[in-house]
């Protein structure tokens, strides 16, 4: 089974929280169900390149920001 990189899902969740947006907001933007977003962020379903671009636009970040490791995010675990 193809999986998304775990850092990507963690970063998207972190950015959603920081920008006070929900998975439901993101799902509406991408035209998919909220459950689909949840599966994609957990790595159960792959994120497509086009979706990553849309997500970056939605969160007002560069696509690279979705792949960058953030030490503060992992240090709090």
Automatic annotation (TrEMBL):
Q: Any idea where the HTH cro/C1-type domain is? A: 12-66
Tell me which domain of life the UniProt entry assigns to the organism this sequence originates from. Bacteria
Keywords (alphabetical) are:
DNA-binding
InterPro entries named among the record's database cross-references: Cro/C1-type_HTH (IPR001387), Lambda_DNA-bd_dom_sf (IPR010982)
* One Pfam match: HTH_26
Alphabetically, the GO molecular function entries are:
DNA binding
- Asked if the keyword DNA-binding belongs to this entry, the reply reads yes
Q: Which residues form a coiled coil?
A: none
Q: What is this protein called?
A: DNA-binding Xre family transcriptional regulator
């Amino acid at each position: 089974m193809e999986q998304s990189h775990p850092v990507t899902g963690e970063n998207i969740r972190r950015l959603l929280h920081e920008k006070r947006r929900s998975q439901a907001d993101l799902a509406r933007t991408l035209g998919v169900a909220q459950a689909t977003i949840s599966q994609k962020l957990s790595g159960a379903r792959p994120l497509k390149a086009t979706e990553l671009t849309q997500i970056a636009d939605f969160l007002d970040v560069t696509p690279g920001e979705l792949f960058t490791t953030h030490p503060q995010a992992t240090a709090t675990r």
